[in-house]
Design goal:
The chain is of the alpha/beta class. The protein contains twelve helices and twelve strands. It has a domain of 200 residues: Rossmann fold. The structure holds nicotinamide-adenine-dinucleotide and thymidine-5'-diphosphate. The site of thymidine-5'-diphosphate has 13 residues, from helix 6 and strand 8.
Length: 336
């Protein structure tokens, strides 16, 4: 049985990808390898327990002894493992550099030692920094604003250098903002949905007119599956949709779907160096033949319904001491 190693497989996109891959490729063995940081959650994979071609391994991509045997065994590796939240990187960034840079280095060193099949390294549109006009293509300069984005850019460059120096077959993908089931409630859309369900204020940074391009997580998974089949090693591929929205529009749409009043919105102190707009040019992927299947409005409706129906999932996170500490550090002063 061929094996796909999904690092960061217990996180938001990783767990959706594991499920997607098992559905599309039932003859594959899927190994989800994850450190289970505050963001990793075994409940994200609960429905897969007992499935014979699925294995979960708890481990750290920065620990060579832990990751090496899995890299050596894999036919394909998809690396989602990362520290991912901009606001947390503004509070403390050591773990971002460790996982998003040194973790990539460790995977590449193992691949260099043992040889591997394709490695898909998952990156982000945030490495391009703010794009005030038009859209960033794959050759746009990297101008990261946050420690998160800078660490991701570092990881990308290392992966590309290993691809060049040692002919490791690596594809880099840079996707826009994802949303959908199992996204940690620290991120914009789930934070706003769960705060609204709890009748708490919805903290909108600055004037709320920052623009993000949004993709339903299932479409990100289908783009990755498509690139595994059709992409060329050593290439970078942007993944986008064209669904660009101001944050305030997204927040208002969520309140409307939940039947909650706009009086819950609170404009609060802005994020430092807050990127005004992200927008990727994804013609390269489009020309290969990929298209997203979900439009923003219906995917948001589906996502809001999922959070409404799966309070068991987000309650355990929101009630944790860890989340309360983070909320206190990031929001208490803003909401005073
Ligand atoms: P997430 O925070 O939900 O998941 C990250 C996962 O990585 C968690 O399960 C965590 O436990 C695991 N992890 C962290 N450090 C690890 C380590 N040292 N070893 C092993 N596992 C570790 O993040 P996500 O939103 O699912 O993002 C996944 C990837 O996609 C990231 O690389 C991120 O940069 C990228 N990305 C995310 C978005 C988005 O909108 N969420 C957009 C573009 C790209
Ligand atoms: P986020 O989900 O953190 O993703 P990213 O910063 O990686 O794009 O935030 C999306 C947008 O929403 C971003 O412009 C910041 C804004 N935002 C708020 O206004 N309030 C919040 O409480 C959060 C978490 C985000």
């Amino acid at each position: 049985m061929p094996t796909i190693l999904v690092t960061g497989g217990a996180g938001f996109i990783g767990s959706n990808f594991v499920r997607y891959w098992l559905r599309q490729h039932p003859s594959w063995e899927v190994v989800a390898f994850d450190k289970l940081t505050y963001a990793g959650n075994k409940s994200n994979l609960k429905d897969l327990e007992g499935q014979t071609n699925f294995t979960f391994v708890q481990g750290d991509i920065c620990d060579r002894e832990q990751i090496e045997p899995w890299v050596a065994k894999a036919d394909i590796i998809v690396n989602f493992a990362a520290e991912t939240h901009v606001d947390r990187s503004l509070l403390s960034s050591g773990e971002f550099v460790r996982t998003d840079v040194l973790g990539v280095h460790t995977i590449m060193e193992c691949a260099h030692e043992h040889g591997t099949g394709l490695i898909v390294h998952i990156s982000t549109d945030e490495v391009y920094g703010p794009i005030l006009e038009a859209s960033a293509d794959e050759d746009a300069p990297l101008r990261p604003s946050s420690p998160y984005a800078a660490s991701k850019a570092g990881g990308d460059l290392l992966a590309l250098a290993y691809a060049k120096s040692f002919r490791i077959p690596v594809i880099i993908t840079r996707c826009c903002n994802n949303f959908g089931p199992y996204q940690h409630p620290e991120k914009l859309i789930p934070l706003m949905i769960t705060n609204a369900l709890l009748d708490l204020p919805l903290p909108v940074y600055g004037d709320g007119k920052q623009v993000r391009e949004w993709i339903f997580v299932e479409d990100h998974c289908s783009a990755l599956d498509f690139l595994i089949e059709n992409g060329t090693p050593s290439e970078i591929y942007n993944i986008g949709t064209g669904y660009e929205k101001q944050n305030i529009e997204v927040v208002r749409a969520i309140l409307k779907l939940l039947g909650k009043p706009e009086s819950l919105i609170r404009f609060v102190a802005d994020r430092p160096a807050h990127d005004r707009r992200y927008s990727v040019n994804w013609e390269k992927l489009q020309k290969l033949g990929w298209q997203p299947k979900h439009d923003f409005d219906s995917a948001l409706t589906q996502t809001v319904a999922w959070y409404r129906e799966n309070e068991w999932w987000w309650r355990q996170i929101r009630d944790s001491e860890e989340f309360k500490r983070y909320y206190e550090a990031n929001y208490a002063w803003r909401l005073k």
